Amino acid sequence: MELTSSSERVRSTEEVVACLRAALDGAGLVLPSLGVDPVTAATGEPFALVALGRCNVRTAARLAAILRGAGEEA
């Protein structure tokens, strides 16, 4: 999902979190605390921050490896 063009439909933070969760699940990763940041969500802004949350060292290393691989493919 890209959010580059102003003419594209911009998704809500909840939708973006759901897309990210699905992509992470597809890669075999779980970020237990992934969600919408409650503080910025309470401000009424249409796009609150995404809280990526905490994860263990194995998950962080796996995520880094996947991101490195994605960068090499681009």
Quick summary of this structure?
This protein is mainly alpha-helical and 74 residues long. The chain has one domain (13-73).
Describe it.
Helix content is about 45%, strand content about 5%. With about 70 residues, the chain is mainly alpha-helical. It has one domain (about 15-74). It has a two-stranded antiparallel ribbon.
Distance between the termini: 15 Å
Our count of helices gives 3
Order of neighbouring strands in the sheet with most strands: 1-2
What's the pLDDT, averaged over the residues?
A: 81
**Class computed from helices, strands and strand pairing:** mainly alpha
- The rounded Rg comes to 14 Å
**Shape by Cα distribution:** elongated
Question: What is the strand and helix layout of this fold?
Answer:
Layout: H1 13-26, E1 35-36, H2 38-41, E2 50-51, H3 57-73
Antiparallel strand pairs: 1-2
Labels describing this entry:
two-stranded antiparallel ribbon; mainly alpha; 2 strands; 74 residues; 3 helices; elongated
